[in-house]
Amino acid sequence: MSAAEHPLHAVLGAGPAGTALAGELARRGHAVRLVSRSVPDSAVEGIERYAADVSTADGALAAVEGAAVVYHCVNVDYHRQVEVMPRVQRAVLTAVETTGARLVVLDTLYPYGPTQGEAMTEDTPWRATSRKGRMRAELDERYLDAHRAGRARVVLGRSADFVGPGVLNSTLGGAVFPGALTGGEVLGMGDIDLPHSYTDIRDVATGLATLGALPEGDGRVWHLPTAPAVTTREIHTMIEERVGRPLRRVVLPEPRPFGPFDASFMAEYAEMFYQHTEPQIVDSTAFTQAFGVHPTPLAATLDATVEWYRGLLAGARG
């Protein structure tokens, strides 16, 4: 097969989303380059692993060289986001403008800001009040401006909080499942009787890969496939059914250190805590209607996540 028949797809960022996406792209038959600051681990055979600092112009250009599609899944330490993410954007956007690659950006809900419980669609106004939310909104405007000006071909996929195999640093991740499986403490944030959307990390990968394959989606924001929201208490009950024991739940009415979330993280997260004191409801109907991709049912997501954490804990004991 020629390179034209199997164009290179470059995934920037080797966290849970980038790693899951690289695997999904490889399963679809693409040549894949997975990029991180240090050579990333990858269990998927055939994925090229590449080290580059994509916050620099030279690093970003080298990382995307030869790629037909570039996926920006880079994240940085929470307390450095406002400083570093704009640098990453400038470097990556300049690189794809130079090479002509399409750019698929993994995005957050932060630009919407508080919604007073209104379900978020792609038409929801951007009313961010936090530093990180305003920063994300400014970056997104620059992406869309570059597309409208014809400098680059860009599409944004927004995700709710991650959940699923491989996801540790999420409010439904390492602060919940290990305690659920071992009888330890389990975190709940804010009002656990409010609905809160989570996006299966595998749906993040499928959604981004779909946007990478279908340029007709370019030039706008899409909500990646996300299961209907239920309350955190309902999710905890579903986890109890899977682990066969009641959860020792600790509910934080305000941000303070807990488990994997240290004082530095929680100090930065305080401005985002509104996400746990009002409903967080993501509507991804537009994506399903446009591309025929449905979210994984929450029950199946929790099944897979519990099994993944069982294996993780067994490996730690072994």
Automatic annotation (TrEMBL):
Pfam families: Epimerase
Residue span(s) of domain NAD-dependent epimerase/dehydratase: 13-211
Name listed for the protein in its UniProt record: NAD(P)-binding domain-containing protein
Organism: Streptomyces caniferus
